[in-house]
Sequence to fold (432 residues):
Amino acid sequence: MIYHSTKDYNVTASIREAVLHGYAPDGGQYLPENIPTLPKAFMMNLGDMTLQEVSYAIANYALQGDIDAQVLHDVVFETLNFPIPLIDMGDNRHILELFHGPTMSFKDIGTRFMARLLAHYHATKKSGREINVITVTSGHSGGAIANGFYGIEGTHVYILYPQGQLTSLQIAQFSTLGGNVTAIEVNGTLSDCKNIVMEAFNDPELSKKMLLTSAKSVNIARLLPQTFYYFWAYGQLAKQGHDMSQMVVSVPCGNLGNLTAAVIARKMGLPIKRIIVADNKNDIFTQYLRTGKFVPRESEPSLAIAMDCGNPRNFPRLEKLLGDHAAMCKIMEGFAYSDENIVSTIARTWQQEHYLLNPHSATAYQALTDGLRPGEIGVALATSHPAKALSTVEGAIGETIEVPATLMRFFNGTSHITAINSGYKSFKKFLL
Fold:
């Protein structure tokens, strides 16, 4: 299948090229030329399939034979070697727990899939050079990307983060691995880190010497696996006998990757009736839904830090997929929540339902509660384990919570960190 840039339809790539390079040469993002519709018979059988079987089938349909079936089978089954439970919260509300992977974040799914796909390309010598993944983290994506790529032959990961702005656990998740993972502490802000990475991708001299790619949701190999769990949730609900024409999903939104994946799943034939958009105070997309004006701005720090995006990078994809503001409003409704709202939701859900939410999941669950209509069946995405926002969650509920051994194991290693200045020249000198 051919993939087109969101900026210029005439800029195209194969799946291999799209995955290896992340961004299109014109700075756009790749989308497939067409999105296949799944057979109705497949949809009817979803409830009888395992998570891995569902995910493999979706990937196979979506990629349309561009990747060898056995290779794709292995990639999917190795990626999803952990469960994704669907929790019934009553009143037709459910929570889809996406945080049972090695770093307890939904990002484990996309990064593990992408890493294994890149390993395949390198093993078949179609990529030629070592594949270098360069990324920035505010604390949430770094661990998932590092662990997803750790030990994957033919790849090296460079994770930049701002000095003094991450917790010790967040840093430990990517700095204690070593091997093909390099942690780089930048003496500057998160914006400085992002500028360094963008300069690297736009540096023709560096591109000639190193094969660079992004592991963010801009990469189609990160985005595609995010469709899997919508189909999985549908199958689990259908098996319980619900009216699946009434399925509504509530999605915590930052760069709009999960939202874009929901739209793609819907275009593939998943009967999602409506999509509820959950924002924090950085409500750029919710405001767009309400006013029709997309106005990027500087992000504000919030308790749901992974959602602190002032210019959501997947917005161009949504425009291409749905066409215009009116089309988006037909299937989407937006809600935005302050830090105070988030803390209140965490506390109330713990007190009344004895269920722990992290700040990002709290926005989705509250939006589902606020936006679900009579007769609808709702699913809120829980994107990260509560222990990954320990101080916020404990402060909200007034109790201490246990940190899972899955997270505590990262403290057993020794951190290996390279410190650089905030300018691009310092980073480029380190790379070369």
Summary: The chain is about 45% helix and 15% strand. The chain has a mean pLDDT of 95.
